[in-house]
Amino acid sequence: MSLLRQLLLSVTLAILVILAGATISSVGSARQYLDAQLQAQSDSTATSLALTLSQPSNQDPTVRELLISVLFDSGQFQVVEFLDPTGRILIRREIEDGSDDRVNAPGWFSHLLPLERHEAQRQVTNGWTQLGVVRLQANDAYARNALWASTARIVTLTVGAGILWGLFVFMLMRWLRRALQDDVTARVQAMAQAAAGDDLPPVRHPAMVELREVAQIITRTHERVRATAAERQSRIESLELELNQDAVTGLANRKYFINELRRLLEQSKPGQGEDGHVMLFRQCDLQSINQTMSRQVVDQWLRNMGRLVLEVLRERLGQQAWLARLNGSDFAFILPMMPGPMAVRVAQAVGEILQAQRIQLGQAGLCRWRMVLTDFEAGEGLSDVLSRLDEALMRAESAGHADVEYLPGEDLRGVTGSRGGGEQAWRALLRSALDEGWFALATQRDPSADVQERAQGLLTLHEPGASEPLSGYLFMPPAVRLGLSAACDVQAISLGLGWLRAHRGDLVLRVSLASILNEEFRGEVAGLLAEAPDQSARLLMDLDSYGLVAHRAPVVAFASMLRQHGVRLGLRRFAEQPEALLYLHEIRPEYIRVSGNLLAAQADSPGARRLLEAVRETAREIGAAVDLAAGS
């Protein structure tokens, strides 16, 4: 029960008690008054009759009986008696109980509120002589009728007052409810429904001063609640930024990227959702950059890079585009509902920005970006897309080029089959290949050689049950990532020496930079070469120019060990690392391969022409051949 109902009910009960008490008190007072009137009437009449009968002229028995009869016939007395001095009744007039038809009051009322029998007696004398006694008993018929009428009138008035009070309470309830609804409830509901920045409806003048104060209190409370809600919303937004934003660059973080990619993949069934592409790019030299520059400069460089890439994305995708920083050196973004050709153009535009933002790392040259792109389909597993990105990144790191490595899902599934492209699958495959000897050497004529008897060797993996062998271009990037490249390169050199025993001519083998940096690898290679001196003299090791610049000491030491065993050297991707020109005399390669990009640029760039001239001049001095037709 509401507080208002309780209050009104208690007041109603109090009013009813008051009315009942007033009714009982009024009826009791009327009864006492009638009793007093009857007693007074009996006393005064008895006195008057006794005086009348004491007159000498009225002492005749006939006259006396006549006077008593006249008094009785007036109907005001129930009993009229005249007794002699001895108590003997001489004259008696009496109305029997229940025989008086003048009584209008019901019997139950007479029993409920009985009137007393009021009697009075007086002596009748003649001088000093007592003639007798007059005794009267008042008739209460008129008093009962008067009491009944009075009681009925009081009860009617009380009931009428109760009914009026009930109507008043009913109207009061409606009025209070309407007042509360208009001035309190409506404002509270408006406060509950109002947004954090909205104001309540203007305060009108309530019917009661108390409600006016309540409305003002509600308004002030709303202001405080709105201020608290705004502060809380600000804290929530701050927490969301902390959860979904990178602290250094202000870009989205890994958690936000994963959640968005998962949402796109899981929002619908295969073939019915949003297909698209994902691009990831990595700064390979962030550790060197941090060692070269201050942290504030590096953070500002990363922020500027992120801002420029984000501007390119928003030009192509709209203002809803975003860029995420997955960790210190990895960045990624999603291209939803974008076909392959358009996605490649966006990736190339981002790649141009990244290449323009490269910074110098001393003698090691400019820092390097590795960029990969893959597609995804709605309903595809998140781990599959991430594994494909990881696979593409491994290939890009192994290839060492500055282009975007595009790895569609169909291409990876066609190569790896049911194994997938994750690190665990590659680790199991490579371990089995090393333990079971599944490697072989595929050779072809070296198109850049001036002589016909020079072949290029490529390590391949022949998995039992597979329809085609895996090329080293496919499994060497995972091997580098997993630390198994040295073991694979040892297998390649061992197979190469075996090929040289069975064939004429020279053989060119590529060795990964990760293997050269492994000291145990250098010792194993030295042992293999020492056992086959004749074949070592016909073996050429193809090295990456970047390794000579970025890791000069271990690469020079490896080249020195190879020369001790008669192995000749070659240098590839020279155009990407022109700084290697400073160290050619330390390794003295037999050939230098310059990519076609530099050749194409010499027509319009005097610097490119001078660089080619310097390469040719240095190559003549050390006795190396310059290959201007080969790619990277």
TrEMBL record:
This is Diguanylate cyclase. Its EC number is 2.7.7.65. It is an enzyme of class 2 (transferase). Residues 423-632 form the EAL domain. Keywords: Membrane, Nucleotidyltransferase, Transferase, Transmembrane, Transmembrane helix. PANTHER family: CYCLIC DI-GMP PHOSPHODIESTERASE PDEB, CYCLIC DI-GMP PHOSPHODIESTERASE PDEF. SMART domains: GGDEF. GO terms for molecular function: diguanylate cyclase activity. Residues 274-409 form the GGDEF domain. SUPFAM superfamilies: EAL domain-like (SSF141868), Nucleotide cyclase (SSF55073). Gene3D superfamilies: 3.30.110.200, 3.30.70.270, EAL domain (3.20.20.450), LapD/MoxY periplasmic domain (6.20.270.20). The chain crosses the membrane at residues 154-173. It comes from the Bacteria.
